[in-house]
Amino acid sequence: MGRIFEFIANTGDGVFAVDRRQSIVLWNDQATRILGYTAEETLGKKCYGIVCGRDAQGCVVCRRGCDAITAAGQLEPSPTADIAARTKAGNEVWLNLSTVVVPSRCGELSVLVHLFREVTQEHSMLDVARDLASMVSEAIPEKRFAGARRVPRGTACLELTRREREVLILVATGISTDAIADKLCISPRTVRNHVNNILGKLGVHSRLEAVAYSIKNGLV
Asked: Where in the chain is the domain with CATH 1.10.10.10?
């Protein structure tokens, strides 16, 4: 396990790992840079008492017996998610969090590894984009959306693939095609293909209309 920890801790992401009791057993330097806590301050502490994560609706996700630890106990993967956490200084930061289950030899959870990177700037840009898109959607006559596919809120995201939704969220932040390609490690041509697919699925004619429509229908 020590060699695994050493390998994982050297990643460019923030990393912390917890045991089945949700006690922190690994905390790397990048986690310190992002959240401000040192390894000495976190090792042996409960993860939910340090990270204090909440989702976009403000609901607590870091808690005793959280969904991630429950799924990990059954050796099931947890989806990547964005959470709002608090730094040691009390500032809110947004983290994109991925989890890896490391089972023990007896087939039970040994440790649950969380890898995270800060996405506060992207969320701030997305908030601005949402405000702008809301203004635009109010200004665009409803008939402009007449040909768009109408999907009930909450199920609209099922119309797009995971990658298309990632592209759409980045489009909403206003960054360029090249920047989206860099973030997703794909080519600009592939980004443009995804954007064209998104426009076709939503039945709109521009990126701005796609963002405005998506915000109205809960895609971003």
From this structure: 121-216
**Mean pLDDT value across residues 204-213:** 80
The Cβ-side half-sphere exposure at 174, using a 13 Å CA radius, reads: 13
Is residue 3 classed exposed, middle or buried when 0-12, 13-18 and 19+ CB atoms within 10 A define those classes? exposed
Measuring CA to CA, how many Å separate 111 from each of 66, 69, 178, 215?
A: 14, 9, 38, 38
**Is 60 exceeded by the pLDDT of residue 159?**
yes
Rounded to 5°, the CA angle 47-52-55 comes to 120
Domain spanning 121-216, CATH class: mainly alpha
Rounded CA-CA distance 24/37 in Å is: 12
